[in-house]
Design brief:
This protein is of the alpha/beta class. Among the domains are: 13-105, Alpha-helical ferredoxin (Fumarate Reductase Iron-sulfur Protein, Chain B, domain 2); 289-303 and 319-441, 3-Layer(aba) Sandwich (Rossmann fold). 48% of the residues lie in helices and 7% in strands. The protein has helices spanning 13-22, 30-33, 36-41, 48-59, 66-73, 80-84, 91-105, 110-122, 128-137, 144-147, 178-181, 184-195, 211-215, 219-238, 250-256, 259-262, 270-279, 287-301, 329-334, 340-347, 369-372, 374-388, 416-423, 433-441; strands spanning 168-172, 198-201, 245-247, 280-282, 308-309, 312-313, 322-325, 351-353, 410-413, 430-432. A 4-stranded parallel sheet has the order 2-1-3-4. A 4-stranded parallel sheet has the order 8-7-9-10, with helices on both faces. Helix 4 packs across helix 7 (91-105). The termini are far apart.
Length: 442
């Protein structure tokens, strides 16, 4: 794609980065076919190719409008288009630049500004946990869009954190909203790793990975979050105490793996950021190495075959529960990790499968997207739940089609945003795959 940058963007880091990305685009439109918002809205400007043209026009000097801003806002940043693109266009980086440039020229209504400020400051604040507790008490009185964000009592409380020490150690980011909303995910991670002889270390000074502020166009705040985390982790990394930085939320993982790129121009942090990114692993990336130990532990935890008494065998144990796995976009498109979770769980005896259709599409959570774009988000959620076979009891759900998939006993995923969002539309339990594994090990 030929691009002629306007004078104000020539020689700037944003302009040069955007131009390099734009020049890879060959207008093929493969990305449009796999874009969730284009599938819902059917508007070229609500697909990657159309948004690329909008951003190209802005970079060439055209004045963006409120409509330009809204088309970019409706992008989920799911990066499905990157998985589809034959030319390697880094659309995720481009849309971050485009949003930043457009927001500088198109003031948002005050209501939008207030909501976005509350999200980026509230979700990352230490006060989020007590605010969650108050919100749950007042849940029936809140607007529907906020009720969706407040988990009920169905999600398990955090189990006991393991106390054993091991020579092998990994760092883990607790996250900003996860300890308040679903603390058992972190506890289950530590317990599963402990069962495999690995100690989980937490740096208390670390907080939000930076994704929330960055995606809400507070790039300075996002970079500050990244620098704070690097400072918190560095004593453990510099002394070689830990062998990896483990992420159990794929949304955080894709962000931390990008620290090296985000801070590449910062002379004080570039080298350390690159080291942090290189050490970062999604929890699922540890599974191949841990499988033998997990299989042994599971074999010990399984009930013995039924005994024969008085010439009659006792009832056989129930058949394995049917599980479906929803791979988050940040895992399968952002980190390009596909198939690892399902393969490992099957090797551990689980009956797990993907959605029969559209397993590559976003569920509509996309960080704060489900708050900022609730109508589109709910459409994508219900579409996903339908393919997962878990929509029959959702509010306002239509009767199941004759070819609807069998109802699962649980839905597994790998990111708190997806888990919470899907759970808001079904009574089928939705949990992190490591929680299921922790339960199976008991």
């Amino acid at each position: 794609m030929q691009t002629n940058l306007a004078p104000q963007y020539k020689g700037t880091p944003e302009g040069e980065a955007a131009e390099a990305i734009l020049r890879k685009c060959v207008h093929c439109g493969f990305c449009t076919a796999t874009c969730p918002t284009y599938q819902l809205l059917g508007d070229e400007l609500d697909g990657p190719r159309g948004r690329i043209y909008l951003m190209k026009q802005v970079l060439e000097g055209a004045t963006p409008t409120r409509a330009t801003q809204q088309h970019l806002d409706r992008c989920l940043t799911c990066r499905n288009c990157e998985s589809t693109c034959p030319s390697g266009v880094q659309y995720g980086q481009l849309v971050e630049i485009g949003r930043q440039l457009v927001d500088k020229q198109v003031p948002r209504p005050r209501g939008e500004q207030a909501v976005r400020w509350l999200l980026k400051e509230g979700l990352t604040s230490p006060l989020f946990k007590p605010a969650m507790a108050l919100g749950q008490l007042a849940r029936p009185l809140l607007p529907a869009v906020l009720q969706d964000k407040l988990p009920g009592t169905a999600h398990p409380r955090a189990k006991q954190w393991p106390q054993r020490e091991h020579p092998r150690k990994v760092l883990m980011l607790m996250g900003c909203v996860q300890p308040a909303m679903m603390p058992n995910i972190n506890a289950a991670t530590a317990r599963v790793l402990d069962a495999c002889g690995i100690q989980t270390v937490v740096a208390d000074e670390a907080g939000c990975c930076g994704a929330i502020r960055s995606h809400l166009n507070d790039h300075a705040g996002g970079l500050a979050d990244m620098r704070r985390n690097i400072d918190a982790w560095w004593p453990h990394i510099a002394t070689g105490q830990v062998e990896a930085l483990v992420m159990n939320a794929s949304g955080c993982g894709v962000t931390v793996k990008d620290y090296g790129h985000a801070l590449r121009h910062n002379p004080a942090y570039a080298e350390r950021a690159a080291r942090v990114s290189a050490l970062t692993r999604d929890l699922s990336e540890l599974l191949p190495e841990l499988l033998p130990q997990l299989q042994q532990r599971l074999a010990q935890a399984q009930p013995r075959p039924p005994a024969v008494r008085g010439g009659r065998a006792e009832p056989a144990p129930p058949a394995p529960e049917r599980l479906v796995f929803h791979p988050p976009c940040t895992l399968q498109h952002g980190q390009q990790l596909r198939g690892g979770v399902e393969a490992a769980l099957r090797a551990l005896g689980a009956q797990v499968e993907l959605a029969g259709q559209e397993s590559h599409l976003c569920c509509g959570s996309a960080g704060t997207y489900s708050v900022l774009q609730p109508e589109l988000s709910h459409q994508l959620r219900d579409r996903k739940l339908g393919h997962l076979g878990a929509l029959a009891d959702s509010p306002g759900a239509q009767p199941a089609a004759p070819t609807a998939p069998e109802r699962p006993s649980a839905i597994l995923s790998a990111n708190i945003g997806c888990i919470q969002h899907l759970q808001s539309g079904t009574t089928v339990p939705v949990k992190h795959w490591v929680e299921w594994l922790d339960e199976a090990l008991v």
